[in-house]
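> call design_seq(struct)
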C-alpha cells in the first residue's frame, strides 16, 4: 500500500499546545499521536478531511481522446492544524 509521510501540526486536546509530527497517512481513518508536552495520547480523526477524487474538474473531452477513465481514489484536505481528541480506551 502506498503511504505518504507528511508533517502535521496537531493541537493537543488536553493542554492546547500545538506540536508537529511526521505521520504516515494510510487508508486508516485515525491517527494516534502523543503530545510531547503533557504526554497525553490523542486520536485524530481523518475522515472529516477525506475527499473522494471524482470528476470534480470539468473535463473537456476532445474528439479522439478515448481515455475517459476516472481516477478513482481519495485524497486528504488537511487544515494547517489538526484537532485531536482524547483517546478512549478500547472496550
Ligand atoms: Zn498536551
Amino acid at each position: 500500500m502506498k503511504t505518504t509521510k507528511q508533517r502535521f501540526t496537531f493541537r493537543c486536546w488536553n493542554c492546547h499546545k500545538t506540536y508537529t509530527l511526521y505521520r504516515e497517512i494510510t487508508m486508516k481513518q485515525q491517527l494516534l499521536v502523543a503530545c510531547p508536552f503533557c504526554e497525553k495520547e490523542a486520536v485524530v480523526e481523518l475522515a472529516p478531511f477525506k475527499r473522494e477524487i471524482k470528476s470534480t474538474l470539468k473535463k473537456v473531452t476532445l474528439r479522439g481522446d478515448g481515455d475517459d477513465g476516472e481516477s478513482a481514489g481519495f485524497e486528504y484536505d488537511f487544515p494547517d492544524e489538526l484537532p485531536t481528541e482524547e483517546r478512549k480506551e478500547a472496550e
